[in-house]
Write a structure and sequence with these properties.
The protein is mainly alpha-helical. Among the domains are: 34 residues; 70 residues, no CATH class. It is 63% helix and 4% strand. The protein has 6 helices and 2 strands, in the order H-H-H-H-H-E-E-H. Strands 1-2 form a two-stranded antiparallel ribbon. The longest helix has 32 residues. 3% of the residues are buried.
Length: 149
């Protein structure tokens, strides 16, 4: 690509605009935006879901469908046995993931707390108090609400 159109400009703002137009055109041509559809059977839902667990999850769902459709003792027992193995593997994978994460982040309290919140499945929500009633007067102003607390 020739950059002569950019290099010929005397004004830096115009040269940058010319450069940015050429660069963004090339960037969009080489790296087009693609739509990505999330599939929980292919992509990991949690960080501790390994590829083998995804395959096992798919097999477990197939056995569940078969057991609910056939309702034979053999299919139900097969599903229950596979479910127990799958749950054991999930617990082991989860334990390994969190213990390795805690070991690797033991000197970083922020990442340790993030990992602990993930383990406890805590998601913080910052919902504020919109209004309060003080002496039968409703206060909506955030500054006044904070000072009255």
């Amino acid at each position: 690509m020739s950059w002569n159109s950019t290099m010929d400009k005397d004004d830096t703002a115009m040269a940058f605009d010319c450069f940015w137009r050429d660069f963004s055109d090339l960037y969009n041509l080489q790296f087009p935006l693609t739509k990505f559809k999330f599939n929980k059977n292919v992509h990991k839902i949690n960080n501790y879901m390994m590829a083998g667990l995804l395959i096992s999850r798919k097999k477990k769902l197939e056995l569940c469908k078969k057991a609910s459709k056939d309702r034979t003792e053999e299919s139900v027992q097969s599903y229950r046995a596979y479910l127990n193995v799958f749950n054991t593997l999930m617990r082991a994978s989860k334990k390994i993931y969190f213990s390795n994460g805690l070991k690797s982040n033991q000197r970083d309290p922020k990442k340790t707390w993030e990992l602990l919140k993930e383990a406890a499945n805590l998601h913080s929500s910052r919902e504020g108090v919109e209004k309060i009633k003080v002496n039968n007067v409703t206060i909506n102003d955030p500054g006044q609400v904070a000072s009255n607390f």
